[in-house]
Amino acid sequence: MESRIRDTSLLKSQCYVNGEWIAASSGQRFAVENPSTLAEVSKCPEFDAADTESAVVAAHEAFKTFRHTPARERSRMLRRWHDLMIEHIDDLATILTLENGKPLADAKTEVKYAASFYEWFSEEAPRIYGDTIQASHPSCRITTYKEPIGVCGLIAPWNFPAAMITRKVGPALAAGCTVVVKAPAEAPLSALALAELAHRAGIPKGVVNVITALDNTITVGEVLTTNPIIKKVSFTGSTPVGKLLMKQSSSTLKKLSLELGGNAPFIVFEDADLDCAIRGLIACKFRLSGQTCVCANRVLVQRKVYDKFLELLVDTVKTFKIGDGFAEDTTHGPLIHGRAVQKVKEHVEDAVSKGARVLHGGRPHSQGPNFFEITVLADMTREMRVAQEETFGPIAAIFPFDTEEGAIELANDTNVGLAGYFFSKDSSRCWRVAEALEVGMVGVNVGAISDPSAPFGGVKQSGFGREGSKYGVGEYVVTKMVMTGI
């Protein structure tokens, strides 16, 4: 396993706190498995509440000085971190594939994307501006300052274990905050490798702290959400967990940004370029075998082009190759664990029992217990579980519709609203539908919407706050007003 990694010092088995690599005080560790082979990749420390508190204290001490670090210096730190990620992209991608299972080419793409957030926010750091405001009384002057909010607790998911960390850490450091990162238990090694590169980049001790836990995940989360030193919590994950963290954070009124579950509609109108729509759906639906929060969960196709779209989709899906992420011909890897496979299986069985047709796949794959066939289901209805639940797996569930109004009504019939997509050549329709969809992000004739310059986030029960873009830093600053009499 380690033979795949050129710089084996990137493969860490300890947590990074206050500039040092440490074990859990209890000595306990948990295993990290490759979801493709079920082979053990490494072991990581099982941090508990006391261990987490020590990381919070380290971040607090570091904040006292780091907040005063000149913006240009913070910018240079982030840029050095970015450059080191690009320099070690092959090893970082290998580590990511080992713990996450995604094909190596996809892992390299993620590492580049992850590094781009450090590049972006290195450029934003010197541009965190305040304002001068006309006061009502002529003898007063009003000025506003943007100040770092303080120590931030960042809780990252396993599906993009590099990019979802850099998208949070980048703006936090740009603003002058310090961080405690809770790495995902399923895929913690990418986070620890990033910590090693932070150390090499010369980021001061205590500014970036990365901790791990499996059985104690709930305990660690409670520390991050209730400790009064932590002023901000950012979480990417499921809506139920987000609600719990929000409730816990209310005890100290922390600032929050929550990027939660989705149920993305993908609408294909009869005037769409079908080849373009198929490419968009493949990019949107089947990336990481459907385990992304913005992937299409419900594919709505206008009846006039319904049969043709199904034909094109099945022909394309038949070319996919499921397998281990390191195999050169693999296009799609495993699901993260057996529970994910079981959920996909239940969604297929529920749909079929209520009248759906299986056009391709529909069963667990012979490659191993964490694999499921790329699946296309036709004739879906809103009574099926896929219509209201996020599958997080490789199912393209196709719903027919007749009118634009009907498509919008069906698309919005969910309590979440992260992303939505549609394909049409009618420019007027594009404006109408984009404005009508109750989501935080819309892709018009495009299936991939992630970009460091684009604000990422949702509405309804998909959460609030935005990551990336010029708005991303705003989540980590507070506005101070100063009124001066003259």
UniProtKB/TrEMBL annotation:
<keyword id="KW-0560">Oxidoreductase</keyword>
<dbReference type="GO" id="GO:0004777">
    <property type="term" value="F:succinate-semialdehyde dehydrogenase (NAD+) activity"/>
</dbReference>
<dbReference type="InterPro" id="IPR016161">
    <property type="entry name" value="Ald_DH/histidinol_DH"/>
</dbReference>
<dbReference type="GO" id="GO:0005737">
    <property type="term" value="C:cytoplasm"/>
</dbReference>
<dbReference type="Pfam" id="PF00171">
    <property type="entry name" value="Aldedh"/>
</dbReference>
<dbReference type="InterPro" id="IPR050740">
    <property type="entry name" value="Aldehyde_DH_Superfamily"/>
</dbReference>
<dbReference type="InterPro" id="IPR015590">
    <property type="entry name" value="Aldehyde_DH_dom"/>
</dbReference>
<dbReference type="InterPro" id="IPR016160">
    <property type="entry name" value="Ald_DH_CS_CYS"/>
</dbReference>
<protein>
    <recommendedName>
        <fullName>Succinate-semialdehyde dehydrogenase</fullName>
        <ecNumber>1.2.1.16</ecNumber>
    </recommendedName>
</protein>
<dbReference type="GO" id="GO:0036243">
    <property type="term" value="F:succinate-semialdehyde dehydrogenase (NADP+) activity"/>
</dbReference>
<feature type="active site">
    <location>
        <position position="259"/>
    </location>
</feature>
<dbReference type="InterPro" id="IPR016163">
    <property type="entry name" value="Ald_DH_C"/>
</dbReference>
<comment type="similarity">
    <text>Belongs to the aldehyde dehydrogenase family.</text>
</comment>
<dbReference type="InterPro" id="IPR016162">
    <property type="entry name" value="Ald_DH_N"/>
</dbReference>
<dbReference type="GO" id="GO:0009450">
    <property type="term" value="P:gamma-aminobutyric acid catabolic process"/>
</dbReference>
<comment type="pathway">
    <text>Amino-acid degradation; 4-aminobutanoate degradation.</text>
</comment>
<feature type="domain" description="Aldehyde dehydrogenase">
    <location>
        <begin position="21"/>
        <end position="482"/>
    </location>
</feature>
<dbReference type="InterPro" id="IPR029510">
    <property type="entry name" value="Ald_DH_CS_GLU"/>
</dbReference>
<dbReference type="InterPro" id="IPR010102">
    <property type="entry name" value="Succ_semiAld_DH"/>
</dbReference>
